[in-house]
Amino acid sequence: RGVQAHRLCPPRGAGSSLEPEERSMEPPAVPEEEEEEEGAVPLSMAPGPVGCQLFGYVGIEAVLDQMKIKTMKTGFEFNIMVVGQSGLGKSTMVNTLFKSKVSRKSSQPGQEERIPKTVQLQSITHVIEEKGVKMKLTVTDTPGFGDQINNENCWDPIIKYINEQYERYLREEILITRKRKIPDTRVHGCVYFVPPTGHWLRPLDLEFMRRLSKIVNVVPVIAKADTLTLEERAEFKQRIQENLKTHAISVYPQEDFDQDSEDRALNDRIREKIPFAVVGADQEHQVNGKRVLGRKTKWGIIEVENPAHCEFPLLQDLLIRSHLQDLKDITHNVHYESYRVRRLNESNQLG
């Protein structure tokens, strides 16, 4: 320390007004020019060796097992919303996704279904378990959406519901004494059912996805794709992709949120297939000695889980097997974060 102070002290006669007897007891400040010349790096900022070779087994990989055990004990939550006109098979599709009766149908067989005058939201929560992993699944249906003659602002109740779940989570988060685990009712994914018209997207479809894609992960699908031929389905998908690109509508998975080249390559293959042409069925049939989920017609059986028949397996992989955690992460880090910042800014302005 003394050597450094002596070296940095300006020599006598060099134009300095500070004499050695009047030197301060504070540690001398190092000029920026000398730091750059000498290339001195503080110990806290010194880079360490990358990929350090260990001399023996430490057990770092056991962290993954610890996380798995903890997740299996506590379980996790997943909230999905289905939006579309009546009769497009939303409830059947959700039951097919999770292979259980998690979404009840709006009417019983033999009874006439009454279309609600306004959009109503119905949420059903189930706890499903597979191989020891528990998932609290909440399915939100939107009966009445797009069923009226005048569908102006029919998306307002849906936007209000999504924001209410963000607000509920925010109120729990800003409490002085917070819960150890905040109940998560935020919508992680919204599956939008496009009618299989074979033409272009309707103004209702475009306006809904334009508004909702800013606050939630929207995954568009072509409902009841078995009503279209393969050629009609390919042309319809191409037109929908052109519509989304023309109107700058970013559906999930969004290009802006790809983290690395591997994610981008995987998501590019998914984006080429969107919207998925899906077929839902909750009944099993016998095909070549095997029990398969499918729809029985006069000309054969449409196998739901056969990629040659429909793209339901791609939707199932996206929502559950490959991107479920990513849906939750983007909801928390992007959509909820933007809502939180906006609400706190509003509170500061009012204050």
From TrEMBL:
What's a Pfam family in this record? Answer: Septin
Q: Where does it reside?
A: Cytoplasm, Cytoskeleton
| Annotated Septin-type G domain residues | 74-346
SUPFAM superfamilies documented for this protein = P-loop containing nucleoside triphosphate hydrolases
- Highest rank taxon of the organism: Eukaryota
Keyword Calcium tagged = no
Q: Which GO terms describe its biological process?
A: cell division
User: Which gene is transcribed and translated to give this protein?
Assistant: Sept12
Where are the stretches annotated Disordered?
A: 1-45
GO cellular-component terms in the record? cytoskeleton
**Phylogenetic placement of the source organism:** Eukaryota, Metazoa, Chordata, Craniata, Vertebrata
Provide the GO MF annotations for this entry: GTP binding
Family membership? Belongs to the TRAFAC class TrmE-Era-EngA-EngB-Septin-like GTPase superfamily. Septin GTPase family.
The protein, known as: SEP12 protein
Does the keyword section mention Cytoplasm? yes
Q: Which controlled-vocabulary keywords does the entry list?
A: Cell cycle, Cell division, Cytoplasm, Cytoskeleton, GTP-binding, Nucleotide-binding
